[in-house]
Specification:
With 176 residues, the chain is α+β, with helices and mostly antiparallel strands. The chain folds into two domains: 30 residues; 143 residues, OB fold (Dihydrolipoamide Acetyltransferase, E2P), CATH 2.40.50. It is 23% helix and 38% strand. Strands 1, 2, 3, 4, 8, 9 and 10 form a seven-stranded mixed beta sheet that branches. A three-stranded antiparallel beta sheet has the order 5-6-7, covered by helices on one side. Strand 6 and strand 7 form a beta hairpin.
């Protein structure tokens, strides 16, 4: 009888240990608390996942989710200013094996070209927002920068031009 009790107790202990281990792993694997991630422009580009079909547009960031903070830490390759749009473009370029020149542009409100120039090391701090919405023909599932988001209506109305607002200058800072 003692052997049976010991066997049952052993099975119960093993089961409890396994269940606790599974619960711990699940909490670690599905941690939904916001995080901060630092990436270069190239790493951000590599992290982008997008596809389109006739009825859907999907864009997400593999390493990030809604609520997370992204800090793009990189060296500016070029800045330009468009006075007609009152917008500055900060460009990060790099060479890749697949393509000779690759780049990511960030568009800011106002003229920041006197303050931010080629070779300046900067941090651009952005917050990830996950939006899902549809119009009559297309479902959109997007992870975008919260600082650029206006609304679904604004996005759909401006989709053929530029469906986001310009980034505020407060998002970019020089690294000392």
């Amino acid at each position: 009888m003692e052997k049976i009790k010991s066997l049952i107790l052993g099975i119960c202990l093993i089961t409890v240990i396994l269940i606790c281990g599974c619960i711990k792993n699940n909490n670690n694997n599905y941690n939904n608390s916001p995080k901060t991630v630092v990436m270069t422009a190239r790493e951000l580009s590599d992290d982008m996942n997008q596809f389109e079909t006739n009825s859907s547009v999907f864009f997400n960031l593999t390493s990030l989710q809604g609520g997370d903070t992204l800090i793009v830490h990189d060296t500016i390759s070029e800045t330009t200013y468009d006075p007609d749009e009152n917008a500055s473009v900060v460009i990060f370029k790099w060479q890749s094996a697949e393509r000779q020149n690759t780049s990511i542009n960030f568009i800011f409100q106002g003229n920041i070209t006197s303050e931010y120039k080629k070779s300046d090391e900067v941090n651009i701090t952005l917050h990830i927002k996950h939006v899902v919405f549809s119009n009559a023909t297309t479902k959109f599932d997007l992870e975008i920068f919260e600082e650029q988001w206006v609304s679904e209506d604004y996005f759909l109305k401006n989709i053929s031009y530029y469906p986001f607002k310009l980034l505020p200058i407060s998002c970019i800072k020089k690294v000392d």
